[in-house]
From TrEMBL:
Subunit comment: Homohexamer. Dimer of a homotrimer.
Naturally occurring in which organism (per UniProt): Acidipila rosea
Binding positions (substrate): M185, D209, Y210, D211
PANTHER family referenced in this protein's UniProt entry, alphabetically: S-METHYL-5'-THIOADENOSINE PHOSPHORYLASE
InterPro entries referenced in this protein's UniProt entry, alphabetically: MTAP, Nucleoside_phosphorylase_d, Nucleoside_phosphorylase_sf, Purine_phosphorylase-2_CS
The protein, known as: S-methyl-5'-thioadenosine phosphorylase
EC number(s) reported in the record: 2.4.2.28
Biological pathway: Amino-acid biosynthesis; L-methionine biosynthesis via salvage pathway; S-methyl-5-thio-alpha-D-ribose 1-phosphate from S-methyl-5'-thioadenosine (phosphorylase route): step 1/1
Entry binding sites for phosphate: S12, R54, H55, S87, A88, T186
Length: 287
């Protein structure tokens, strides 16, 4: 039975989801290892939701230490069809001010030490990623911002860096010259793996700072980020609830069939162990 329809991944500052009712906690193991923490399952706005603290409760995991594959696989095991991610980001443009929400529709990859695919070990697949986020989930977040009277900007490019150190000024200015909007350390692998798992994904990015490019302004510090997150936490929860309420029941986007034409390997050439590990994700395509 489907235990949750919508997954919420809470980032920095969001380690629980107030407003969830009928909650219970569940530990989930995956063929890819352990997720960041137990999942909290419950109801939000009449919908079955699964909440996961991305860095674990107590913020114990670096961006590079996150087991993105386990987190997304566990969501799939729960029956999650759409993931709404909440993240703190630095602004790369004057117009994106701390406490604004940006709903990115593109990514630039500056990571280098992460597992970004479920495939390999005898099976090759290439999913389309030209539109890396789900328009339905993005629209629901934009709608949630409007319904909560919060500035929410539809679209923008999220630079995903490795971290954990923040960027140098030269890097920050380079990303600005590329026209990027915001910077963070976590969303790209989630978006890639959600696509491979045929789960819709979009992110609600809360601007917490101006990184280090803005003259006459202090460079980003964790203190500064935490202060903005605390100031804006109630808004973030309001928007999440309103976005969940705005999520259509029907799923008509292409995310649900992302693997349909992606797998290159002949079914009889896939090693048994690999086939078993990926059964939940690709079983229906290897019949
Ligand atoms: C708290 S400072 C940097 C940290 O915040 C963002 O995390 P998340 O995306 O989980 O909200 C950023 O990506 C870094 O991991
Ligand atoms: N300036 C920044 N760079 C990377 N990740 C961030 N998360 C919040 N602010 C950030």
């Amino acid at each position: 039975m489907q235990q949750a329809e919508i997954g919420i991944i809470g980032g920095s500052g969001l380690y629980a989801m107030p407003g969830l009712t009928d909650t219970r906690e569940e530990r989930i193991s995956t063929p890819f290892g352990e997720p960041s923490d137990s999942f909290v399952l419950g109801m939000l706005e009449g919908r079955k939701v699964a909440f996961l603290a991305r860095h674990g409760r107590g913020h114990r995991l670096l961006p590079s230490e996150l087991n993105f594959r386990a987190n997304i696989h566990a969501m799939k095991q729960l029956g999650v069809e759409r993931i709404l991610s909440v993240s703190a980001v630095g602004s790369l443009k004057e117009e994106h001010q701390p406490t604004d929400f940006v709903i990115p529709d593109q990514f630039i990859d500056r990571t280098f030490a992460r597992q970004s695919t479920f495939f390999g070990d005898g099976i090759v697949a290439h999913v389309g990623f030209g539109d890396p986020v789900c328009a339905t989930v993005s629209n629901a977040i934009v709608h949630g911002c409007a319904a909560s009277d919060v500035a929410g900007k539809a679209g923008g490019t999220y630079v995903c860096m490795e971290g954990p150190q923040f960027s140098t000024r030269a890097e920050s200015n380079l990303y600005r010259s590329w026209g990027a909007d915001v910077i963070g350390m976590t969303n790209l692998q989630e978006a890639k793996l959600a696509r491979e798992a045929e789960i819709c994904y979009a992110t609600m990015a809360m601007v917490t700072d101006y990184d280090c490019w803005r003259e006459g302004h202090d460079d980003v510090t964790v203190d500064q980020i935490v202060a903005v997150l605390n100031q804006n936490a109630a808004n973030a929860c309001k928007v999440v609830a309103a976005a969940v309420a705005a999520m259509p029941r029907e799923r008509t986007c292409p995310c649900a069939s992302a693997l349909k034409f992606a797998i290159l390997t002949a079914p009889n050439a896939v090693p048994a162990e690999t086939r078993q590990r990926l059964e939940l994700l690709i079983g229906k395509y290897l019949k």
